[in-house]
Automatic annotation (TrEMBL):
<dbReference type="Pfam" id="PF00496">
    <property type="entry name" value="SBP_bac_5"/>
</dbReference>
<dbReference type="InterPro" id="IPR000914">
    <property type="entry name" value="SBP_5_dom"/>
</dbReference>
<protein>
    <submittedName>
        <fullName>ABC transporter family substrate-binding protein</fullName>
    </submittedName>
</protein>
<feature type="region of interest" description="Disordered">
    <location>
        <begin position="26"/>
        <end position="46"/>
    </location>
</feature>
<dbReference type="InterPro" id="IPR030678">
    <property type="entry name" value="Peptide/Ni-bd"/>
</dbReference>
<keyword id="KW-0732">Signal</keyword>
<feature type="signal peptide">
    <location>
        <begin position="1"/>
        <end position="23"/>
    </location>
</feature>
<feature type="domain" description="Solute-binding protein family 5">
    <location>
        <begin position="101"/>
        <end position="482"/>
    </location>
</feature>
<dbReference type="InterPro" id="IPR039424">
    <property type="entry name" value="SBP_5"/>
</dbReference>
Amino acid sequence: MTRFGRASKLGAALLGGALVLSACGSDSDGGDDTDNNNAGGGSTDTVTLAWAQPLDSYNPTTAGANSNANGTILNGTVGGFWGYDGERGLVTPHEEFGTYEKVSDDPLTVEYTINEAAAWSDGDPIDCNDVQLWWTQQSGAIDGLFSAVGTQGIEDTARPECEPGGKSFTLVYDTPYADWETAGPGVGNNKIMPAHVVAREGGLSDEEFLAALLAEDADTLADAAQFFNEGWLINGSLPDESIIPSSGPYKLTGFEEGQSVTLTANEAYWGEQPATKTIVVRQVAEEQQVQALQNGEVDVIQPQPTVDVANQLAQASGIQTHLGDQYTYEHWDFNFDRGPFSESLALRQAFALCAPRQQIVENLIQPIVPDAEVKNIRSLAPWDPGYDLGVDAVAPVIAEFGTTDIERARQILEEEDAVGTKIRVETLDNQRRNDSGALVKASCDEAGFDVEFVSSADFFDTTGGLSQGTFDVAQYAWIGSNQMSGWNSTFRSPAECSAEGKGNNNGCYSNAELDQLLNDILVAPNPEDAQALAAEIELKLWEDMVTIPIFQHPGITAWGDSVQNIVPNPSQGSITWNVHEWSKG
């Protein structure tokens, strides 16, 4: 599968179209700064990444902390059996952590072996206790106790048997599972977390904790689970070092609120030591990142593409730029738990008709990618097999509700006696989303809604608007991969509509028919069946007007000429998938 087929077009648009794009007032003159040819200059022992959102939890496996910022910053600190590696974002085993092998299809059986030398940075071995904690959380075996993003197939496995201190375990599935490789412990939101820390903070010995996990004793585990769900949150300072041991090449060693996070080489790591001793992640607003790179304040950036960013990169010197497609798409989600859209399909349809999707793409994306189009399906990227089948399936609904029609939107509001309905549209505070919000407000106000547009820096935080459900419509992006299980939990009925109970389903949509389709696609016997089911799911999501896709994100990464081994990743592996290989000469 070709992943970056549009990269050359994007690059041509960026460079060839720079003269007609609006200038950025903070741009340098490009010639007087002698450091421009050595962006990110300074100590060769440190590489600095600019990132706009803060780290807010050491545990990205919980529903409230499942953010791209947490995953990106923590990629080098907590390991697993696999990751999304390389330029195409494909699943690749991480054999330094351990090995796995599918040994049977009937029943589906996968054997795992943790590296004999694998240990947390505090010296505690990575073993059976960690596995049992991981399985208990990821399977949802004790309903509502441990927060998780989604069970992602582990609910269909038997609890693995392993001896205390053991390094091997086996997952046996009740049913086939198409994405079995990414169901096991890996990166992102299904990392193995340190059981000995959870036990200690829950007032239990390791032996007591393991016994309670095996017995699924919710009462005994209550305090430990509370720590697991909330004890790794970062509020103003890092937790004590004893609480955040590492199982990767880096450990988390520094934090300045609103400023930076510092990762330092984990000298206790059993594998190869990282190429650079220190990684600093500086919190820099996206519109300021190109200038920070040019000034040598940071070495690597990956801002969201905007016209200003395109202009600045076209004029920059002494940097490398990579442009290509991403498994990331922008969308609006409705709140089904509260507010005017929760019970009214008609009002959701009216919003779809006033939402200026084409105008957003034309004004904000096409100046960078001239052939960018409005996105009409969510679960598949344009280069994925089955994409055209999904587009064809939703065509009747798109013909009716997929194009902006202010007059018809107003007609629906009048029929529903809902002219003047106040709606709160929330998003993250950055330039492109603020520009998008202004377009939404203008268009939907004209149709008869009263739009309150709110953008905030803490939108993705565990206490922010998305997690807490304070929105009527939320605008944000999902970054995924080519794995179906990655987006499956996004539309599945939540256990409860709370920050910890809703998983990826931030709008708390619930539909038993769709749940069954989501179950079916995970056990589809072949790709053709899976593609047909994906098309059915897309049609159902449009018919119920659950969420409205807007566009596929183009990706921009830039780094200083002195930095080596920066390899952009289009999946949720993010730019830091190979942070241990970064170096600077």
